[in-house]
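Crash report, auto-generated. Payload:
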Amino acid sequence: MGKGGHLGEFEELVLLTVGSLYNEAYGVSIMDEIVKESRREVNVSAVHAVLKRLEAKGLVKSWMGGATKERGGRRKRYFSLTMSGKKALDESIRLRVQMYNRIPDVSFNFSY
Amino acid sequence: MNAQPPKWADRFLQWYCNPQLLEEIQGDVYELYDRRTNEKGSSFANRRFVWDVIRFLRWSNIKKSDSKYTYMNHFILFRNYLKLGFRSITHNWVTSSINIFGLAISIGCAITVLRFVDMQLHMDSFHTKKDRIYQVLHWVEDESDRDLWGDVPLLAGPAMLTDNPAIEEMARVEYIDGNVRYGDDVFGELLGFVDPQFLEIFDFPMIYGNKDALYQKEQIVISRDMAVKYFGYEDPMGKEVSIKFSNGKIRRFFIGGIMDEYPSNASFYLHFYISMEVFFDIHSEKHFDWSYLTDATFILLKEGQEIGSVESSYEKYVELQNQSDSKWKSMEFTTISLPQLSKRSFEIRSSFSRGGHPAGRIGLAVIALLLLTMSCFNYMNISVASATKRLKEIALRKVMGGVRRQIIHQFLTENLLQCAFALIVGTALAYYLFLPGFNAMIPIHIPFMFSSWTVMIIFFVSLLVLIGLASGAYPAFYISRFQPIGIFRGNERFGSKNIASKILLAFQFFFVFVTIVGGFIFTDNGRYLNNKDWGYNPSGIIAVNVQDNAQYEQMKALVQEHPKIISIGGAKGHVGGSNWMVNVDHLGEQFRAHYYRVNDDYMSTLNLRLTKGRFLTARSQDQISSAVVNQKFVDRMGWEEAINQTFVYDSIRRTVVGVVEDFHGVSFYNEILPTFFLGMNKENANHFVIKTDVDSQFEVDQYLKEAWYRIAPDDPYEREFQSDVLNDFFEENNANVSLMVFISGLAIVLACLGLYGLLSFNIQRRLKEFSVRKVLGAAPSNIIKVASRQYIRIIVISFILGAPLGFFLIDMLITEIYSDPKATGVLPFIASISIVIITVGLTISGQIVRATKVNPSENLRNE
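Recovered output after restart:
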């Protein structure tokens, strides 16, 4: 994965949420999940922008759901991980764990 | 869902949002809105909804014409519009040329006027140090008024230079009259003593010599005009001239430098520059005299210094000046920066800089704007009318899938194209016709160069865009709105009942009547003043300048035997030539009066008309304390019987021995002032006045000239025919009259062009109607009536409104300008209405005749 495919911090968060919500991921639900889990203020427009970017990178795919009552009859656009999305997540988690494990034990000695 | 989100925000979202994304975005914000309404109430939800909508306003969500083919398409269509524009210009070449020519005339005027205004606002801009140069001025108490004077104490400049470290240089200018002689040529000239730094502070271009030429006081610098005048084709550098100053001293100088031709935007310059040292050589007593005022003082600040630091030190100089025995007390000094100087020079008394009065620039700009507006109206009228021919084309475009925007673009492109042509023609008109004409009328010369390229480009582009949009927008937006179905059915019938174009036409003719009535009143008044009695008969009178009584007597002895010379008089001051103004006390009040000192023969030589009493005689009583006054003087004093009344002037009680009719000594702008004549009483005469008959005046002039050079070879022969003394006034006045006539002429040309365009289209459109009328037996007179009725009505209405307004405005202007204008009669109204009738008649007759000559069989056969 080149530089263009590099995941930003918020992108990674959204990607994780899309994966975890599995088939129930759309703009508002993703935002809710992020707000709930990370306790940070997120605007739905930011989520939309990131989703669009991820889709352009091929990390998620989307489809329109059926009509609903509570949205004035408007359909939802659902998102789910693609194979490369899953790979990108794996890669970034692997990188983190690998780097984390390299930290020498002595650095954890905070008692001086 | 009971609560509704704010409608405007929702609509805004729908407006900007890309339709492909709208559903999901709108769904999400609605969902959030519902939830927030339930949780925290509707006002919170409304606020958040608006916030969300604003946050969604991102580049990626905005509606875009997202295909590059659209751009391609635009480009190709644009080429197509251009081609269509060219075709429609060549196809309707009569209307197009009317449009283009009409616009071009007013564009030409606008360019000329802008050039004039531009120059007036950028006077003296060629001096590179202009932002650091200031002229020192001072406020002087003059009777009850405070006046801003350009003259300041001669000693103020050097004092400021030594006292103030912020000042880098200082230069003064002192005007003086003198007679300059080279070989046998002698001319009276206005000379300027300047500090040598003058040439360094200012950046007047020099052809020969250096800017330090004046540091040697035996050198002078002259202008190029003077170099040509005195030396012709000789090389002037190093030549010796002698100058006789007004106090009789003669000095020799070498030409140390020649100025190049002055830039046309120089608001001040001199023809002779002499070192200030020479002035002090001649008038050494002025070295310590704070009461002596010099004509201009300039200071140059050091780089980065503020003028405020200089201004704070003025108090000291006011004190010094007030301690001197000056008649005029300084109240306060002030400074004005060079870029501001020419714009405010009209406020400054005896200003060194000669900038124009702002009324001129404003008036001309308003007129240019009105002319532009008129031709834009024409343009709109004709474009709307000509679009009737193209309705089907527009409808077809729409049917084939053209959208309204494209039709607007097409019309605007065509309009801009025509405007571009008009701009080119207008520029040529301004360059070859208007600007040279304008230059011939006013005393300054305006070159066709703007103060900077930026100004020029901005002006031309904004002219093009403004005129193109202003005149093209109405037809473009109006016509493009029509529905194709209406056009094909023939429902869209506009032009015939078009109120807007009638109003526009009425406005034009209204303007025509205002200017034409005004022009007539002005012209009439000008002619009246040209023939007006001056209060004395100036014909055959010649006045020669003399230095003193000795010269006067010598001249008199030499020429009095000439058979053609009827009488000879002498005076200090001269009616029309040099009118001195003084204040006369009357019952504790002061009023301004002209006065002349005259000898026993002057008044009869000048043909002044005595109404009571007698002229002054040579008796010593008359010479010392008698006076002759004019009627105004009598009125001002309130005397019933003027003879033997007395008044005090110059601490002597004067007895009135005669009254003359009021006469015009100055110009017709000014009211005639109270005037009195006193005896010479040993004063020196400066005018030698003779009377001859009109036919011999040139012969006598030649004779006087020869006599003059016999008695005074060092002094120039300066004479004026009395009938020419008001020439400056008449030239200016005639220039104003021609300007007025030119404007009303333009107005009527523009209005007739507009009328012609409109009429020819309407008749074209109504040919079938006329044919039917003819078939049914209408007489030609009937058709003429039908065809021209609506236009006659418009013209009558605009005459009723415009003529009185024109009369009112110009009458106000004329009584403001002239002290005694001609009372306005009915002539202007009759003349203006007949001129309009004639021109309108000529304009429309061809078209009307076409209407009466229609051949029904040709026009009706294809229905």
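Post-recovery validation: The longest helix of chain B spans residues 727-765.
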